[in-house]
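Bumping with the actual sequence this time:
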Amino acid sequence: MLRSVPTGCKKIDERLGGGIPNGEISLVYGEAETGKTTLAMQCAVNCAIQGYKTLFLDCDSTFSGQRLLNIAPRDFQDLAELIILMRPQDFVKQAMIIDQITDYVTRSFGLIVVETLTSLYLAEIAEKPEKAFDLNRELNRQMACLAQIAKIRKIAVLTTSQVRSVFDRVPLNVEPVATRVLKFWSDTIIFMKPTKNPQVLKVILDKNPRKLRPLTCYLKIEENGITECLTH
């Protein structure tokens, strides 16, 4: 059994006791182009390196084979075969896949990634604003389902989310879409924030299962993935 999935970012992995923990949901959120997808793919690669499969739900069509090749140039074909990619076309299909995950996930799986969990949810709300309450309740149900799968199957679940602006705060801040739902179910929360340098990210680990104080560090987005940034 895989106890945790390394992110490849030393300070974050040390604080989390090895990486994204199994049996729980971890949330990564941030604005566009802040490395959320790259981090998720990097976790999938690190999971594969240890011989375990990843079920990767690409809800925003951001998964890139070329990006995966850059992150895992060695034994690419062998590692790629351990990453099972699924692309739901709408929020209903997303729900169906999540409901059927136990049919796909066996003991050979170490990670479930739901990339941009809130993307199809937002698209559905935009199309049917009168059903916002029901859609929010369905999103909550999906998170509860993922939490149960993580706990019962002893598997790490990593979700990513878009953000929304919070205008009643000074200074202006951002939070994940459907904040209450996502934060309630997530045991680990990582906020990825842009800096003046487009290649450097400010990363805040503001919730972790070990209940340690928040951690702030800087990471660098490079062609072969995300690494520690010693200067920023």
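The tokens above came from a reply further down the thread. Residues 4-228 form a domain with the Rossmann fold fold (CATH 3.40.50.300).
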